[in-house]
Amino acid sequence: MRIAQIAPLAESVPPKLYGGTERIVSYLTEALVDQGHDVTLFASGDSITRAELVPITKTALRLNPYVRDPIPYHMMLLEAVRQRADEFDALHFHIDMLHMPLVQDFIGRTVTTLHGRLDLPDLPAFYRAFPDHSLVSISDNQRLPMPPVNWAGTVLHGLPRDLLPPRIDRKEGYLAFLGRISPEKRPDRAIRIAARSGKPLKIAAKIDNVDRQYWEEQIAPLLDRHSNIQFIGEINETQKAEFLGNASALLFPIDWPEPFGLVMIEAMACATPVIAFRCGSVPEVIDHGLSGFIVDDEDQAVEAVARLHELDRGRVRAAFDARFTADRMASDYVAIYRDLPGARTPAPALPRQRRAQADLQLQAAG
Asked: What pTM value is reported for the model?
């Protein structure tokens, strides 16, 4: 198939540091290329891919200090997609909602993966206004707040099989927290769990400007009180394998309806079990007692730390291999592409058909 992948411009594909959506777009794009598809990636110019790259900006917007408003650049992205839309059997959007009013002419060949939270008050009215767009959720739980829409499927995220090597023989290590410093991610819970367990905790996390006050007032003081907590800061993909692989467990103490939680399967790929709070997608990702423990409060989390010896790290990695590879993710998406109502017409024929229709109209008018 000829497939277009349309990525956000905030980060490169893959991102240099933090950026879950762009990372998934990268893994999906490369897996589709491996499966023999003709893929075109619309993204920032510093992206790296074996697909055809259509660069919209020179660099990712987050890395450009002169960018104040991302909307003009995303309008440029949409215009570039519109100009080439007839070339593709399927167009896969990862930019939430900006494109929906603009793709009506080729809506039958489009699908949109919703990567973010959907329990926001402004969203139901919007999606009721665009009920015909084919949407993909990244967990079944993510769908719950939505009005009736045209769900094309749920596709759980996947990683390249060889991206993160497993550390099967790791016996004792620190507890790990990886992600963003924000109230919904609850690093305060992670700190208390580690302190009560008597285990060291390493925090590798990004601090967005919007969360700076939360960090300074709520989290930084906790680090001063507990000597077993180490804040590392934001890490890159190369550092992630060692950080997760050397941990006894990943703490995922979230307090919000997490749509997926990519870090959970990153830990599993490293053969590192996950201790996660029962929110959002967690029960769809973690097999309790196999790839980790699902808990309901901090007391249960402390108990789970004491039970980590019951888990076989080889089976943690096997759970990843069975369910969360990029190849499986790509195959799931290809099945959705093939089922789109407009994807059955070969892409090269579409321009010819439209030209023929135009010629007939001209002849009739003459």
From this structure: 0.88
